[in-house]
Design goal:
The protein is mainly alpha-helical and 205 residues long. Helices cover 68% and strands 8% of the residues. Strands 1-3-2 form a 3-stranded antiparallel sheet. A hairpin with a 2-residue loop joins strand 2 and strand 3.
Length: 205
């Protein structure tokens, strides 16, 4: 394979990785601590070098998409003191509420002693608290994703437009470069639905 072919493949795979990195920011947000399924998360990890290669060789396009997403990045990815205190207060109330319920159930009804009660609270309360944290994070992600949806979509569309042109100019087979997306409202792609909010798109040629 020619070095130019290798360069083109790295460039297009890097573009796809960069695009898939923030496309899930649009609502509805995936449920979880991170905005990706495990398969997408590990796929993105494996393509970080190619993603960085694309960014390095397309600084103008990278800067343009960053500008489109600047308000989202500025607001959604940072917690000010007010947000932090609000989340901390909700967690404290949640934990105290769970504790009171468990103490009553385990102590008054099931006749657990103190250590049995503590163990039961840890076993049952930990996963419930985790799910509560997941709910808080997903709710926040949905809020900001909805607020800046048009900006994120515009950034994704810029990359898709670049990809369509790149495939045509270099006579590449678009079927070799599928995009895993959560939305099917972009121009320049042919879609196949794989499930709820799961689409595979290929560049039109």
């Amino acid at each position: 394979m020619l070095s130019e072919d290798i360069r083109n493949i790295k460039m297009l795979e890097g573009l796809i990785a960069y695009l898939m990195e923030f496309e899930p920011s649009r609502p509805p947000a995936p449920i979880g601590i991170i905005p990706y399924s495990f398969s997408i998360f590990f796929e993105l990890l494996s393509k970080q070098k190619k993603r960085n290669y694309f960014v390095k060789n397309n600084s103008a396009l990278y800067q343009k998409t960053r500008e489109y997403r600047s308000l989202y990045l500025e607001n959604a990815t940072k917690f000010d003191i007010k947000d932090t205190l609000k989340i901390f207060a909700l967690l404290i109330l949640w934990v105290l509420g769970l504790g009171c319920i468990f103490i009553f159930v385990f102590g008054m009804i099931l006749n657990f002693d103190f250590f049995q009660g503590v163990l039961a609270i840890l076993v049952i309360g930990t996963p419930i608290t985790y799910l509560f944290i997941v709910w808080l994070i997903t709710r926040r992600r949905n809020y900001f994703g909805k607020k800046y949806d048009s900006d994120i979509k515009l950034a994704v569309q810029c990359l898709i437009d670049y990809g369509v042109e790149f495939v045509r100019e270099n006579d590449l087979d678009p079927m070799d470069f599928p995009l895993k997306l959560r939305h099917d409202d972009y121009d320049g792609l042919v879609y196949e639905k794989k499930g709820k909010n799961k689409f595979v798109g290929v560049f039109k040629k």
